[in-house]
Design a protein that fits this description.
253 residues; alpha/beta; Spore Coat Polysaccharide Biosynthesis Protein SpsA, Chain A; five-stranded parallel beta sheet; two-stranded antiparallel sheet; 37% helix; globular; Glyco_trans_2-like
């Protein structure tokens, strides 16, 4: 069974009253329709815009459809600014059943933060959303439709992921908690996810969404391109040489 290497403090979150509670686990039966995981590193300035837009959409959708339930999980990836404080204000406003803040002791990279959020999620479907608000939340309905239009997974693959995420759907690119995954850095974790999905012949939907470039990106174009190329080569070589292996788990009864 996959597990996280957690600092003791990372096993808890503060509820809206400022009291410590144990984090939920993906191994428990889902109690929400949708979990939204928001990896955040030094995002005190950009996070409010994204959270206001996301929660506005989610609240309105819940009003129109009372069966729709959600949670937003902000994972503060070892930020040096007030990201946790900013995010916690939304926990106080909407309640810790809808908004939770997980603060990592050390920076783990975007992939590591997403993994932490997903392992603490309660949703039947799990979506990763960037903290910069570059995409708009109504587009989640396009992702849901794309997911529903996919052909069913082969039984063996479905069982494989059931053992990992209890049969929950991970919207399009959100296959993040695969226990086989090795890369958790900022640039290449999603590329490796696609490689893993193709290896197991898991259907992938490509959905067009509205995108707006937001100021404040932490990427440095030239050096980031070089690093991405290095990461891609590293991933390929590690799998080709057998240093990293993908294994399908045994079927469950």
């Amino acid at each position: 069974m996959p597990h996280l290497h957690q600092h003791e403090e990372e096993k808890f979150f503060l509820n809206a009253r400022g009291q410590k509670e144990t984090l939920p686990s993906i191994w428990d039966s889902p109690t929400k329709r949708l979990s939204v995981v928001v990896p955040s590193y030094n995002e005190e300035k950009r996070l409010p815009v994204m959270m206001d837009e996301a929660l506005g959409y989610l609240e309105e959708r819940q009003k129109q459809d009372p069966t729709f339930t959600y949670e937003v999980i902000v994972v503060n990836d070892g930020s040096k600014d007030q990201t946790s404080k900013v995010a916690f204000k939304y926990c106080q406003k909407y309640g810790s059943d809808k908004v939770r803040v997980i603060t990592l002791v050390k920076n783990r990279g975007k992939g590591g933060a997403i993994r932490m959020g997903i392992f603490s999620s309660r949703g039947e479907q799990i979506l990763m959303a960037d903290a910069d608000g570059a995409t708009k939340f109504p587009d989640v309905e396009k992702l849901e439709k794309g997911l529903n239009d996919l052909q069913p997974w082969p039984v063996s693959i479905r069982i494989y992921f059931c053992e990992t995420c209890q049969g929950r759907d991970l919207i399009t690119l959100c296959l993040f908690k695969n226990k086989n995954q090795y890369i958790f850095c900022f640039r290449a974790f999603d590329v490796e996810l696609l490689y893993i999905a193709q290896f197991f012949k898991i259907p992938i939907a490509e959905i067009a969404v509205n995108w707006t470039e937001i100021e404040g990106s932490k990427l440095v174009p030239f050096w980031s391109w070089l690093q991405m190329g290095k990461d891609l080569l590293f991933i390929r070589l590690r799998y080709l040489t057998g240093a990293w292996r993908l294994e399908q788990t045994k079927k469950m009864n």
